[in-house]
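Escalated from tier 1: magnesium ion holo job.
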Amino acid sequence: MDKYDALKQYFGHTQFRPGQERLIDAILSGRDVLGVMPTGGGKSVCYQIPALLLPGLTLVVSPLISLMKDQVSALRENGVSAALLNSSLSPEDFQRTAREIGRGVYRLVYVAPERLDDPRFLALLRGRAVSLLAVDEAHCISQWGQDFRPSYLKIADFARRLPRRPVVAAFTATATRQVREDIAARLELRDPECLVTGFDRPNLYFAVRRPADKTAAALQFVRERRDKSGVIYCATRAKVEQVCAALQRSGIPATRYHAGLEDEERRANQTAFQLDQSPVMVATNAFGMGIDKSNISYVLHYNMPKSLEAYYQEAGRAGRDGAPAECVLLFSQGDVRTARYLIDSGGENEDLTEEERELIRRRDLARLDAMVGLCKTSGCLRRYLLDYFGQASPERCGNCGNCRAPAVETDVTREAQMVLSCVKRVRDRLGYYVGPALVIRVLRGGGDRRVRELGLDELSTYGLLRALSRDRVQALVDHLEQEGFLTVERAHGTLRLTQRAGEVLFHGERVTMLCPAAPPEGGTKGRRRRAPAAQAAPDDGLLSALKALRVRLAREAGIPAYIIFSNATLADMAAKRPRTPEEFQNVSGVGQVKAARYGQVFLEEIASYIGGET
Ligand code: ADP
Ligand code: MG
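Tier 2 regenerated the structure:
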């Protein structure tokens, strides 16, 4: 068997993705490798195929138990003998697995890094040749990364203590040079083949929106994607609770994940998400590495993350099966304030010197600036992202919010003057400053009780911006804050004029702002742009039938649906409509074992669907 046979027979793919082949070839020729590919890029097969072709055992170090479980069940579904060895096993299972490893039953064994200095584990491997040591999520070894795991530092030592040093292959999605160099050094890679593949994920649609009411926007977003699975990332636990509750109240099967929950609940919620019992997950960034779910069709950022690294990693969890998916960020100026505040007040780490802390602070602020830049750019969002990660790309991608509804630089001086003078008038009338929400209500002339009670409906600025939506006025206020004409006082959240406001009010300074050329998105009633995820599938009815069948089979077997077949595979199946087992094998993502296991039921489903059509 060669690598192509293995790819088709076990994984059902006919072609390697960019980079996979080179890494596999290097490993097979005995060379260490460092593979950097974006999330969803297909790192797993880079060590799983060598594992099938090399004579000895392949050990895979992976940081999380849930990750290991998923990978092992996926491999077993594909007919590959794999096992995991970690603290989640009962003593009996552990002993049995250990014996079976000794007997050479498995091609791949997943281990937690904590296991590596266990003398019993080393003894177990004495009689077995280890051909390959694969380190997944290798950035966990770097203190510069966000997911540093001290136990990863044991890996190099472990490799040295084996009777024969295996090939060491490291994989990560973290692209910065610093982390890459750290990985190579700490894993003691020997003249590794380093491969950094493109970071572009063409199937992801990126967009930034600025709704005044994020919760309402999130609700609507999820409602419009009822049959889809998605993740909503929030900055804090409290937000997670609030958003999840709001979704549940409107009948959406959402669940939540954050570090404040008991282990058990976290696990249960994650499982409910994996199994699509609760297809919507509301989470903090604690919900991350453990998810290998391939059918996530959107990632909605309720808050802006602190860096583009974090953003791209989180957004990248959508569309891993290659099907079109959406990544939408709900931006507000408040997110920037919160992030700044966290950076300024952070650095509690006592191990660091004052100087180091300052260095980190400045680095974090620079990262934040880059992140804010994405939210403010009128250019192509994909190009902005790829540029940050050091990859050249065309001017326009055609598949992001800015390419589809380009923003145009607009003169908003008049509106800006209205906002600024309203802030001043309110302050003059009341003798104190108020928060942005009240100012916006005055500007839009809503005439609610509080506005009237305070006599603010008598101001000359009352109702001046009646013609604009609340979102637009909010965006304008945000913009004026960002440009330094307004500032929000931290303690009371009141909106104040800065020195610079006078330039606009009295000295003719112009203010420009990016405004959507088309009517603002997020509008309701059938005006919704066609989202890429909603692209008409070749055959929607058949696809739904196949999905239903997949859910049924998954329930029966107690495994996540996407482990049976990915969305991309079902879509291909619906398009090709195979009628014979041979044709079934031609569907992308169908390997031998799965064809044997599921071919008949799926063929019957397709036949009965076609029969019903005529
Ligand atoms: P990563 O670990 O890099 O985030 P995975 O290894 O989990 O990504 O792969 C992501 C998805 O890509 C999986 O659904 C996998 O089946 C699919 N995939 C991997 N290699 C190929 C290939 N050569 N052709 C088609 N699909 C592939
Ligand atoms: Mg992976």
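The radius of gyration is 27 Å.
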